[in-house]
Amino acid sequence: MAKSGLGQAGQATAIKLVEVQRIDRSGVSSIIRAITQDGCCIIKDFTDTETLKKANEEVRPYLKQINLGRAIYFPQRPDDLTSHFVDKTTSVYYGETKHTYTSEAICSIGITFDIGTGGKAQRLHRDDKNFHVDHEDQTKMGYRVGLDVMMAVTVPGVKTTYENRETLAIPGRHLWGSDRAPKAEEAILAEMETGDAWVMLGGLYHAGGANII
Ligand SMILES: [Fe+2]
């Protein structure tokens, strides 16, 4: 299917690319497989219309008051996914006794954002830059659980479309080493219905699209 991607200056370019996998929230093992392969997927029916309506109503007064983009809404933590991809178990010796500990993922940030008309597209980037991650190339050996330090979950308050700044991403580019640059023409759109959620590894190249409504 022909999709519109992100041009050099954020303009649309007609390109033919793979689709982001869309998987129902009950298929946890399928979701894990999709994220291992692509670095991302869309979780269908992640939440329900009532919850979304309530969240939109709660944040609306704040979005009206502020310059858009302050922390307000904390999405539900998808435990099965973060425990698979982010939790880490390591061992250390105390004297001659070996101790094993598991560090569980924490919710380090929760934000609400509303990109108004005319909002520019972001450049493709990796969110785990905030944690100083230096990616080794995994394209040959395959994805290795334990190297990722974060995941992101986005629950759109409205149906996302090309026009209203849906997420762009390059599935599979979570495997690249730090020395490879993402190409804008490879980015595809992740259109979502209300109630869906976007989930991705911190190492996946992605960007917020422009709002051209
Ligand atoms: Fe980002």
TrEMBL record:
InterPro entries: Phytyl_CoA_dOase-like. It holds the Pfam family PhyH. It comes from the Eukaryota. This is Phytanoyl-CoA dioxygenase. It comes from Helicocarpus griseus UAMH5409. The lineage of its organism: Eukaryota, Fungi, Dikarya, Ascomycota, Pezizomycotina.
